[in-house]
Amino acid sequence: MRALKYMGWVTSCSVFTAFISIIWQAFQSLQALNKTTVLLTGLLAIESSVKRSAFEPAPKIAVGYGACTDLQINATEFLDTFYKMRVPNVNPDLAANDVNNENELLQSFVYYFKNGAAAERVIANGTLFKQLIAHAKQLDKERIHWYMGGNAPLMAVRFVMEGADVLLGAHMSKKLRPLLPKEIRLAGDEIPDDDIHLILEYKAGDRWGPYEAPRANRYILHNDKNNPHLRSVEQLTDALKQYQPQLLVVSGLQMMDMFKFSPGVREARLNQVKKQLISQPRDTLQHFELASYVELKLLQQLRQYVLPYVDSLGMNEQELSNLREVLQHGSTTLATDWNPRVANTLDQMRQVFISLLEDYHTKREADTQRRVVSRIHVHTLAYQAIMTIANSKWKNTRGAAAKAALTAHRYVCKSQFVNPESVMLVLDDSFATSAQEQAPRMRMSAANPVPCWQEYIQFGPSRQRVEVEICVAPVLVCRVAKKTAGAGDNISASGLVAQL
For residue 228, what are the CA distances in angstroms to 67, 252, 314? Predict the structure, then answer.
């Protein structure tokens, strides 16, 4: 009997413990939902405060270069179907190279997949690329998706969605042109066939062999023939003379990465980009959207031909780390922390800003066409960080950060409605503004969902000071990512429009 009583007591305790655990989990879920709803309400209120009135003229924006057709498939399904028995061990040395065969492809994919890092790689082997496209087309038709692609067209579409008047520099085929909104003006020739990009998308927790993705992202492959040559630059330059935009956006230059040009050809094409930039009036703002680069020589050329002549930069956390490494040490990085602390990101943004400021002040007398970068926007999974020089032409920094954060969720979830139950918060309630000791902390709350502050940044041997405004907005991360390719373009474009 004692044994039975003891067993009954143990059972009762177990049931009670399970009951308390359920209640506690429900309480925590309710708290998280309440916190998300409060932040969402605050972000929406800030977003609505920067909407243009019907009487304001639409901002005029020009964006280049190039376009393509995106073939999007699920990465692990594709690899399980065609390469299930060939899961490789990771060789980091191969991650930096172009892809010439299947072994290099699998090595490269696994390297970025296990780090949750976005990557875009050229396949110089045209036969292999055609084979991959053929494999992809064999998948269930409901599992493959065709989209209009390319940084410039995606940014152009977002600009139009946000109420801008847009001029796009790109070559397109008759098949692709109808996918572009009619409101967008096109500067570029018609071509017989569009370049195709193969987009291998994966979700957080997806597995291939022993490897697991820590976050949703994509691995992009291409064998472009048109885009690396930036063939629409001259047509866009001619169109700009009449169009006179408020903002000129340069994107798509990563198509030149690891592409085999004849000697001097790439430099000549980049020089045409430089000529386009320096031919614009000083009151035309100019933005460069970075992407996935691995070739150091190209990055050094961008430092020579592009970076000195733009006012604004847009990038993700991986591209920020890469740019800082190039500017400060003359080297590159591959995959970096997929969820960096805000403090570390802000410190890297300051370092990039200082490097570019020092370049400008050192060389401006010899090159009067140079511009000083007055805006940097970094978009990560967990937050948006925007830094602008105080009292510059860029306005509404808080609103731009909120808009970019909401665009990140809407685009990846493929829904204009933000459902708090479909959201995951990765960013903590507060964050340090720097990794340095005794750095101030900023707290997010219902009253202040997007913390902003002013600070002075010192640069150069004489320790000159420049005042900047920094805003950080939490991203309501989509729990079930439906599309990540093109997210950065949409996020960056929405933030730019809000600051014009």
Answer: 11, 8, 20
Cβ-count burial 40-62 (b if 16+ within 10 Å, e if not): bebbeebbeebeeeeeeebbbbb
Dist. CA 452–CA 469, nearest whole Å: 7
CB 489 within 8 Å of CB 151 = yes
Long-range contacts for 368-371 (Cβ within 8 Å, ≥24 apart)? 369/278, 369/309, 370/308, 370/309, 371/286, 371/308, 371/309, 371/310, 371/311
Helix spans in 50-161 (H): 75-82, 102-115, 126-137, 151-161
Handedness of CA 332, 333, 339, 340 (dihedral sign): negative
pLDDT digits (tens, 9 = 90+) for 418-463: 988 888 888 989 999 999 999 999 999 888 999 999 999 999 888 9
What tokens does 397 get? 């920094």
- What is the token pair recorded at 414? 């493929």
| Burial class of 485 by CB neighbour count within 10 A (0 to 12, 13 to 18, 19+) | buried
Quick one: tokens of 22? 């359920």
The helix-helix angle for 296-305 and 317-329 (nearest 10°) equals 80
Distance in angstroms (rounded) separating the CA atoms of residues 272 and 269: 5
Task: Please say whether the beta carbons of 379 and 314 come within 8 A.
Answer: yes
Cβ–Cβ under 8 Å, residues 385 and 342 = yes
Query: Is residue 387 helix, strand or coil?
Result: strand
Residue carrying the six token digits 């001029």: 167
| R_g of the chain computed on alpha carbons | 24
Model pTM? 0.90
Matching residue, tokens 């045409």:
272
**Distance separating alpha carbons of residues 37 and 202, to the nearest angstrom:** 27
Per-residue pLDDT tens digits for 127-164 = 999 999 999 999 888 889 999 999 999 999 999 999 99
Question: What's the CA gap between 305 and 460, in Å, rounded?
Answer: 22
> Residue 27 has what pLDDT?
44
Tally the residues of the chain: 500
Beta-bridge partners for 99: 123
Rounded CA separation 423/431 (Å): 20
Give the closest residue to 109 by CA, choosing from 197, 199, 227. Answer: 199
**Cβ(236)–Cβ(188) below 8 Å:** yes
Q: Please state, in angstroms and rounded to a whole number, the distance separating the CA atoms of residues 160 and 162.
A: 5
| Cβ-based neighbour number of residue 315 at 10 Å | 22
Which of 384, 399, 343, 396 lies closest to 477 in space, CA to CA? 384
Q: Which two three-digit tokens encode residue 341?
A: 């602390």
One-letter identity of residue 174: K
Measured CA to CA, the distance from residue 5 to residue 8 in angstroms comes to 5
Burial of residue 7 (number of CB atoms within 10 Å: 0-12, 13-18, 19+): exposed
Question: Within 162-316, where are the H helices?
Answer: 233-243, 265-278, 296-305
